[in-house]
Amino acid sequence: MDALELVRLNLLSPMILAFALGIVATLVRSDLRLPDALYSALSIYLLLAIGLKGGVALRATPLSEIAGPALVTLLAGALIPLWTYPIARRLGGWGVADSAALAAHYGSVSVVTFVAAQAFLDRAGVPYEGFLATLLALLEVPAILVALLIARRADAARDTTRGAGTPWTETLREVLTGKSIVLIVGGLAMGAAAGAAGMERVAPFFVDPFEGALTLFLLEMGLVTARRFGEVRSAGVFLLAYGTIAPLAHGTIGVAAGLASGLSPGGAALFATLLASASYIAATAAVRLALPEASPGRYLTASLAITFPFNLVIGIPTYARLAQAWGGGGG
User: What CATH number should be reported for the domain whose range is 3-25+32-326?
Assistant: First the structure.
């Protein structure tokens, strides 16, 4: 499948069109809103469904097959903050807290972007390893901890404090007990324990309606994203540039690293999406707790209003095309 066909397939999918509808509805000042309870229910459903399907695949996967990609995932989660922080400090001229917050968000992962990439590959008929949900769970935490460690070391070097500070144990507890981690890891454990036979019993609820639920969720994400467009206009050149260049750079690294670790072209495209995405749930919760002085107008605008739509529209088909070309997938 050539590049233009991949882009067309992505742009004309119901999920992306629903995201666009949410943006348009906000721009024309429609009163369209999803009830908070429905949004919360959809997020729980999607996270648990990802975990369940990943757990079933994990049970059938030899340890030798997942060991390489898992190691690469942990390394990526630790390394991305290490270059994101100095880029924000030196090129963006940002302070310690804002730079560390950006590093945490871009080293962590957007679950919704991952799900959208899965749906895209399914529509394109591109197979991928089912255990990628395990890598998603592995990538969620390391970057947040590394970024917060960078901030603490920088403050210590300058002999400053942030008031009483937030204990490391509290920050770690906040990250590990957050909704996304609990549901994905819990779903992985449930799926691995139940296996394919057990999954068949809940497939009519957790498999068949999945893309419909994702379509509704992305409608809400379009509404939320458009509300931050005003902040994008005032974000400055650095934030706009970083929000588009970083996902392309991280995605390219992800394709190469994924293929080198033994993933198929489809798996490498999905792994690239993991690295290219930026968190706006788990990382945001941790940053608000540990770095309250960091500005959401910077890190949240970059991850949610710039990188998230960029990946949905341009990034995902780009990573799939690169994985096809480099992995011998033809096209």
Answer: 1.20.1530.20
